[in-house]
Amino acid sequence: MKCANCGEELRDGCLYCSSCGKEAQIVPDYNVLEDEYLKALLDPDNQEQESSLTNQTTAQTDKSKTTSRKRKNNKAALIAIIFVVLILIAVFSAVIYVQIQTKQNNSFDYQITQAQMAEEEDDIETAISYYEKALSLDPNNIEIRRILTDIYMDRNDHDSAMMLCREILQRDSKNKEAYETLIKIYDSKADYDSILALKEGIEDKQILKLFEDYQVATPRFSMAGGEYQEYITVELSSAAGHEVYYTVNGKEPIENGSLYEEPISLDKMGEYTIQAVCKNEKGLYSNVITLTYTIDIPAPNMPTVTPGGGTYNEETLVSVRVPSGCTAYYTWDGTEPNITSNKYTEAFPIPEGNHVLSVILIDNDTEKISEVYQEIYMYYPQ
Q1: Cβ 320 vs Cβ 304: under 8 Å
Q2: Are 211 and 195 within 8 A, CB to CB?
Q3: What residues have CB less than 8 Å from 373, skipping those under 6 apart?
Q4: Secondary structure (H, E, C), the chain
Q5: Architecture of the domain spanning 220-295
Q6: Do domains 220-295 and 304-379 have the same CATH topology?
Q7: Residue 15 backbone dihedrals phi, psi, to 5 degrees
Q8: pLDDT 10s per residue in the chain (382 long)?
Q9: Looking at the whole model, is its pTM more than 0.70?
Q10: Residue pair 271/300 in contact by the 8 Å Cβ criterion
Q11: Cβ–Cβ under 8 Å, residues 357 and 305
């Protein structure tokens, strides 16, 4: 039996419901509808009622099924609607995302901002990637190339840095920072030829100053090249105190030169070709300077003799003025003197009679002979 109040099963013999505490009231444990149905089955007179009840039950069942189907259909429709809405939201979100990404990828400022943020976080690879994207959006931007150059220099990626510097100079031939970076890279490799090649064609004075340490001034000569009628001494020097190498045999001085340490004496007749070059502490050479000297000392002038030729009635001494470096020779018989003739050492007397005095001077170094002094001397004592 069940409790009339709460419908819980009552234990046998209980006067109160153990669930709700109400006084137990006996309620038959059957369904009213079922009871009516059973009565109709047992009572032939109630056939109509049975049929009606059956129809009523069937109708209720059909109604319940119809309601259930409607509920299921409504639920399916709701699920379909929700699914379609979710798909639309996803598609819309994807379109918005693509638009945002496209806008960001095409935004120069966005790439720069992201690159700077990556640098602050020491994510250099990401920073480089964003800077390169920014450069693709603005191919002529020099500042981005400069930033990338600094990054590559910090990473000792000299090849990438050189490529960017060359690109900068293609767009700005007077960019001092690009020249400084290239010089620094070439210097680290001791590639001085590339530094000098980089200098070619530059006219800007401020840029040229960057190459001063790599420009070696040519040596200085104490005497200009040319023809000299005396022996000379040539001194070489460097304005910057660099070493000087030279040759006097016509050979190239960089490979064959001697280190200059003392003046060069040109003490023989002939032609001299002096080639000289300066070398700095980096091992760089200046341009080679070549000067030619011709030492062509002329023969001594005709000697000066006193007194001159003439007639003398008393003993007279003849003297010859002999220049330094020369020797005088003489004869009285009219023949041309030579080194086997009388050597003049002091004044000599005019001999008696009629004589022809001949005098020459010979340069002791060149052995060149002067013109002959020749006069008639007549001495007749009284």
Answers
A1: yes
A2: yes
A3: 302, 303, 304, 305, 357, 358, 359, 360
A4: CEECCCCCECCCCCCECCCCCCECCEECCCCHHHHHHHHHHHCHHHHHHHHHHHHHHHHHHHHHHHHHHHHHHHHHHHHHHHHHHHHHHHHHHHHHHHHHHHHHHCCHHHHHHHHHHHHHCCCHHHHHHHHHHHHHHCCCCHHHHHHHHHHHHHCCCHHHHHHHHHHHHHHCCCCHHHHHHHHHHHHHCCCHHHHHHHHCCCCCHHHHHHHHHHCCCCCEECCCCEEECCCEEECEECCCCCEEEEECECCCHHHHCEECCCCEEECCCEEEEEEEEEECCCCCECCCEEEEEEECCCCCCCCEEECCCEEECCCCEEEEECCCCEEEEEECECCCCCCCCEECCCCEECCCEEEEEEEEEEECCCCCECCCEEEEEEECCC
A5: Sandwich (2.60)
A6: yes
A7: -95, -20
A8: 677 777 777 666 666 677 777 776 655 554 544 455 445 544 555 455 545 545 555 556 566 666 667 777 778 888 888 888 888 887 777 666 655 555 566 799 999 999 999 999 999 999 999 999 999 999 999 999 999 999 999 999 999 999 999 999 999 999 999 999 999 999 999 999 899 899 998 999 999 999 988 889 999 999 999 999 999 999 999 999 999 999 998 899 999 999 999 999 999 999 999 999 999 988 899 999 999 999 999 999 999 999 999 999 999 999 999 999 999 999 999 999 999 999 999 999 999 999 999 999 999 988 999 999 999 999 999 8
A9: no
A10: no
A11: yes
Q: Provide the CATH number for the domain formed by 108-214 in this structure.
A: 1.25.40.10
User: Where along the chain do its domains lie?
Assistant: 108-214, 220-295, 304-379
Q: Residue 36 corresponds to which tokens in the numbers above?
A: 């009516």
CATH superfamily of 304-379: Immunoglobulins (2.60.40.10)
Evaluate whether 330 touches 358 at the Cβ level (below 8 Å): yes
